[in-house]
Amino acid sequence: MTLRWTALLICLPLAVASCITNSSSTAQLQALLQEGGEGYKLELCRNQIYSLTDVLSYTAAGQEISTEKYPKDESRATLKVAGFNVTCAVKATANGLDGIALRNVQIDGNRGNEPIYTAPQANIEFGGMNSGQLIEYVRSYDPRGWSCMHIAEGPFTCRGATIQYNDIGPCGSEAFQQWADGISLSCQESLVQGNTIVDATDGGIVIFGAPDSVIRDNLIHVKTRTLLGGINMVDVLPWRPEGNFSNVLVENNHISGGFATDIGNDTMGMNNASAIIKIGIGIGPQVWWSDGRYGRNQTTGATIQGNQFSGAFAFAMAISGARDDVIRDNSFVGNVSFIGSYGPNCTVGGETPNSPVPLLEDPSLTTNLDISVPSPASSILSMAPGSGAFQTGRALGLTCFMPPASDSVSWPYGGGQVNAQPTKSGGAGLLIQPTLFGLCFTVAVAVLFTSVGGRL
C-alpha cells in the first residue's frame, strides 16, 4: 500500500464591505453614481458622517441613495453639507431621473448660527421633468438655504413624487427673512404623508399649487421657535393659471402651536421660547402679503378637511384671496390659545389686519367657498364667539403679528410639556366646547382671545 500526499487548495471567503464608507470623497461618491448607471444603489454605512464639498447628483433613472439595512433611527448615515457657499446635499432635478429614491439617511445642512446663504437651493432638491421619485425615512435639518426639502415643478411636468415618513427640522431661524420651510412642494399628483416637521420657521409644508396632490396625516409642531405658517396655500405661482390648486387635498394633518413650558395659572402658562404658529393653515395670497403684489389673484380648487389644531396660534385658519375651495370638518383638539400683537410690518389705517381669532375670512377677497360651520341655532359653539365659525375681517399680511414675551401667561398646557393634562376650569382663558367646524366634538378647548399690547 502506497501513501500519497495531495495538496488541497482551501479558499475562505473574504469579508466584503456592503456599504461605501466615509473615507470616500464627494468626487468618489459622485463617480459611483455616474458609473453605476440606471438602478444603481449607493449604499452608505450606518453611523457614519459624509462631509460633502459639493452637491451629490443622481445621474440615471431608478438610482437610490440609502443607508445599509434601512435603519430609521440616529444610526442612519449623515450627508453633511460642507462646501463653500453650497446649500444642497443631494439633487435629482436633471432630465431622465424617473423613479429615483432617497431613503433612510440624514441630511445635515450645517447652517449653525450663520445667516441664510445666497445659493438658492434646499437641503434636498428633487422634481424637475421627472416622475415617481421617492423620499422616505429621511431626517433633514438646519438647511443653509430656504427649505429642508424642495420638490420642484420643472417645466410643469414633474408628477407623482412621494414624500413620506420623514422627520424634518429645525429649518431656518426666526430672524427676519432668515426663515426656511420644512417641505416645499410644487410637483403635481404628489403624495406627502406621515411626515413629522418640528421647528420650521417659514412654512411647515408649503404647497406651490401642485395640482392633484394629497397632503395628509402629517404632524407640524413648534417647540423652540415661531413658525409663520403650518400649511401654506398662499402662492399663486408658479402653476398656471395663477393660483392653480386644482384637486389638491389637505386632510387629517395635525398642526400644533407652542405649549406652556412653565406654570402660570390654572389654564395658561409661559413659554421659554415664545413659540407660536402665526397661521395654522393659510389660504390665499393676501393672507401672507400686504403689498398687493398679486393684485386680486386667488388660489382655487382645493379641499381642506379633517385637520386638527392645538396649542398657541395667532390664527388657526385664515382665508383671503381664494375661490372654489371646500373647507370642512376641521377641528380644535386639546387646549388652544390665539395670541399676538401687531408688529412693525403690519399695515395700518383701513388696511389694519384683524386681531388674532381662531378662524378668519376676508369676504371681500373670497369667492364661492364651501365652508361647513355650525349655525347659531344648532350649536353650543355660538356661545363662544368665533370659536366655531369663521369671523369676517381684514386678513391681510397676517405674518406681521408678534408672539407675546416668554414671561407672558398666554400659552395653553399640553403637548407633553409642563402641566400637560387638559384643564377643566376658568382663569385667563375661555373654556369652550370642542369645535369641529360644522359639528360638535367631544374634547374641551381652552381658547384665549387676546391681542397682547399694541403695535411694536
TrEMBL record:
Signal peptide residue numbers: 1-17
Membrane spanning residue stretches: 431-452
Record's keyword annotation contains Transmembrane: yes
UniProt xrefs under Gene3D superfamilies: Single-stranded right-handed beta-helix, Pectin lyase-like
UniProt cross-references to InterPro entries, sorted A to Z: PbH1, Pectin_lyas_fold, Pectin_lyase_fold/virulence
Keyword field: Membrane, Signal, Transmembrane, Transmembrane helix
Protein's name according to its UniProt entry: Uncharacterized protein
UniProt organism field: Kockovaella imperatae
